[in-house]
Amino acid sequence: MKFTASEFLAFARVVQSEEWRTLSQKKAYRFTVEDRGLRVVPSTGDERLVSNWEIARFCETYSQSNSVKTKDYSKLFNKSYLLPVAHSFDPKRVEFSLADEVVDTSDLHEGAVRLVSVNAYERNAEARRRCVEAHGSSCVVCGFSFAQVYGDVAAGFIHVDHLSPIALKGGNYKVDPVSDLLPVCPNCHAVIHLRGGCMSIEELRGHLRART
Fold it and tell me: What is the DSSP string of 150-173?
């Protein structure tokens, strides 16, 4: 089964109250979803944080192989705690969440995680402004323009979406608003991130074309 890091975290948030056991040695552990990843508490009490970066790498590998063997994740230190959750992943238990944007006045760095209904990455308002300057304010998926529908009161308003998931960037990174971002309307942005996932812009365009 394939899923993104965002979908994995959304599922983990739903099942975090349950008790888990590693697949190989059957060691009991619990975890909670935090801003920076999963806080794992083994039965030994030696808790650890599994970072969002490691979760993203794990999900990328798991989605390609569907392997539950720890040897296939040799470069990931905490795979024993991620594999049981991945093996139990059920998309029907992943809650819907809408894409969210946060105004940020710092330099163009993104990747700090905060919790909404599932983990969502902060969006940078200045990066969005520069993206709109470069690409315009019409949705690149459906063509919707706030200015055309609502007039000057909404001129220039649009969401932006990342061409690749921020989780795969490995934490804090510097955004190139022209090459990393594209303008999308709130409806398309919400569909891109349904259930905490991250559909590509091209994939969503394909869904629209198939319905016309």
Answer: HGGGGTT--EEEESS-GGGG-SSE
**Interacting residues of 77 by C-beta distance below 8 A, sequence separation 6+:** 54
CA distance 5 to 38: 12
CA distance 77 to 54: 8
Q: How many domains does the chain have?
A: 2
Which residue, 200, 201, 5, is CA-closest to 113? 5
Has residue 101 got a pLDDT over 70? no
Task: Please indicate, yes or no, if residue 67 is contained in any of the structural domains.
Answer: yes
**Residue 51 DSSP SS3:** strand
Q: How many CB atoms lie within 10 A of CB 206?
A: 12
DSSP output for 6-31: HHHHHHHHHHTTS-EE-TTT--EEEE
Q: Are residues 115 and 202 in the same domain?
A: yes
**Residue finishing a domain among 29, 64, 93:** 93
CA-based nearest residue to 108, from 176, 208, 21: 176
Q: Are 24 and 70 in contact (CB under 8 A)?
A: yes
Contact 89, 8 (CB under 8 A): yes
Nearest of 43, 83, 47 to residue 67 by alpha carbon: 83
What pLDDT, in 10s, does the model give residues 38-88? 999 998 888 999 998 899 889 988 988 878 787 888 778 889 999 999 999
How far is it, in rounded angstroms, from Cα 193 to Cα 123?
Answer: 14
